[in-house]
Amino acid sequence: MAADREGVPNDRKRGWRLPDLTLDRLWLIFPVVILVILSFHHSVRLLDFWWHLKVGQIIVETMSLPRVDMFSFTVPGTEFILQNWLTETIYYLLFRLGKLELLIAIHTLLLVASFIPIYHLCWEATQRVRLAVFSSGITLLALAAYANARPQIVSFLLFACFYWSLVRFCQGRRSYLWFLPMLMAFWVNLHGAFVLGLGLIAIHLFSESMRRLVLGSGHQTLSATQLGILSAVFCLSLGATLLNPEGPGVFEYVVGVLQDPGSQLFVTEWKPPNIKSLPGVVFFFGPFFVTLPIMLFSSRKLRFTEFCLFVVFGVFALSALRNGIWFSMIISPIVARMLTGTFVAETTRSPFLTRIISQNVGDGGSGNPFMNWVILLVFLTGAIVSSPWLFPRFFQKPIWQEETPVSAMDFLEEQALSGNIFHSQIYGDYLVWRLWPKQRSLIDGRMHIFGEDLARDYLATFSDTCWERRLEKWKIRYLLLRKNDKLLEGTDRIIQEARTSENWQAIYEDELCIIFEKAAPG
User: Fold this and answer.
1) Is the dihedral of CA 331, 337, 338, 342 positive or negative?
2) Which residues have a Cβ under 8 Å from the Cβ of 94 and sit 6 or more positions away?
3) How does strand 504-509 pair with strand 420-423?
């Protein structure tokens, strides 16, 4: 080390300086920061959040789990299994501690934590930063699209942990496999997707057993001891699922929700993906058509376990739009390993393609350290500004979805109006949160408890010219209708007919919705 005449090293006289930030490290950080920004930009949605928050409040305040429906006036007293009770309790405790801002921030941390295990598997499969970024981007886009606050986010994290542990175990790496039964004991009380954890273990156990049976013990297959460990972990995880308030009945609940005809009829995410829609492309068809050619043209062969995972979760994703997230998480590490084959392939097969891929996703070069820091600071600033504490203040936007009828609920609460309300289904969850127990919903996001008949009857009301007659059986006194409702085309017609009818009087109206009160007889 060079020194001046006084013997003081020159580096010490220069003082502190920024550590070097290479281009590869910047690439490594980039997906995480992007996911944080995209997650922060997701407002609290109307559906599948607010009623969970209300249940959490009831659990905390009463120290008991509701067993029957108490939120609706259409199916009151219906037996209702509250399988997400632990998530709902945590939701409300976070809300009470730091309102929606803290809840959204913790939700974002969980989303990033769900991405990290998949990202790490992609890195281990490639040992190339940009290839890991590209392949994990499939999962990143799916997580970002599903970044709205809801209990399912907990399943994303636990699914990723199970997958990470199982893949590393099969590769002979340190995997913490014995922690899976303990995680399952929590998962079964957090969200119904816990069955996917059992499915992951079962698929790995089956496929690795078949490989050993067909190939023998000399072809990098799991040993009999390792298969025994995998079997023991499966049995312990299966036993851990019984550690919930419903015991074995929790499986009946999950099957009932999956097969519920009302949800499949009424809820978009329970319908099969459509290649003509953006969600269908993001959650299934996009990842599928990206993965397929990579598998076909890579010099690496698809492992039997990877093939089983691809087929099982591909079929599962085709059954419902909401299942595409699991398919995206499964295929990212598979794509990563397949992509490394393009670098060892013979250039005579496609020299142009090999050169293009090597130049664009191959690592190399440190870039300008100062500019790298500037770019990182820009992204970090974007993440901070997008936080739920700052974004609403800077951009004058609410933390919740702009279509949330806050003012209408304020009016109903201030006027202390009593009587059944016929409302747009998308308003049901927020109505429960704001007005229960003084008001109850007609229908809300818990479609599996309302049944197919009620769902069809509700939908038919908007297309029936005699809609007032249909409302009589529910003893409706108020109409709370959403303006310009693109999901229910008959809503605007009902609003216009109510405006001109002597039977209804508009008592509240804003740019989002309108409230009518039924006129008294005579």
Assistant:
1) positive
2) 102, 103, 106
3) unpaired
DSSP type of residue 362: S
Residues 6+ apart with CB under 8 A from 110: 153, 154, 156, 157
For the record, the structure tokens of 503 come out as 């039977």
What distance in Å separates the CA atoms of residue 357 and residue 128, rounded to the nearest whole number? 12
Considering only CA atoms, which of 185, 161, 187, 186 is closest in space to residue 175?
A: 161
Average pLDDT over residues 40-53: 89
* DSSP assignment of 430-461: HHHHHHTTTS-BSS-S-HHHHHHHHHHHHHHH
8 Å CB contact between 393 and 385: no
Q: What average pLDDT does range 70-83 have in this prediction?
A: 90
* Average pLDDT of the segment spanning 398-419: 92
Q: Provide DSSP, 117-146.
A: HHHHHHHHHH--HHHHHHHHHHHHHHHHHT
pLDDT tens digits, 478-517: 999 999 887 788 899 999 999 999 999 999 999 999 999 9
Tens digit of pLDDT for each residue in 352-394?
444 544 444 445 556 677 888 888 899 899 899 989 999 888 8
Half-sphere CA count of 235, side-chain side, radius 13 A: 6
**Sign of the torsion formed by the C-alpha atoms of 406, 410, 412 and 416:** positive
What does the alpha-carbon distance between residue 131 and residue 361 come to, in Å, rounded to a whole number? Answer: 6
pLDDT tier at 18 (50, 70, 90 boundaries)?
low
Per-residue confidence (pLDDT) for residue 344, from 0 to 100: 46
Confidence (pLDDT) at 360: 46
Give how far Cα 475 sits from Cα of 74, 434, 438, 451, Å: 10, 21, 16, 19
pLDDT at position 353 is: 45
Q: Which residue, among 487, 446, 449, 370, has the nearest Cα to 75 in the 3D structure?
A: 449
Dist. CA 84–CA 82, nearest whole Å: 6
CA 135, 127, 110: angle at the middle one, nearest 5?
55
Q: Which two tokens stand for residue 521?
A: 């007889």
Where does residue 518 fall: left (phi above 0), alpha (psi -120 to 50 degrees), or beta otherwise? beta
Pairing of strands 420-423, 476-482: parallel
Distance CA(506)–CA(510), nearest Å, equals: 11
Tell me the three-class secondary structure of 23-54, residue by residue: HHHHHHHHHHHHHHHHHHCCCECCCCCHHHHH
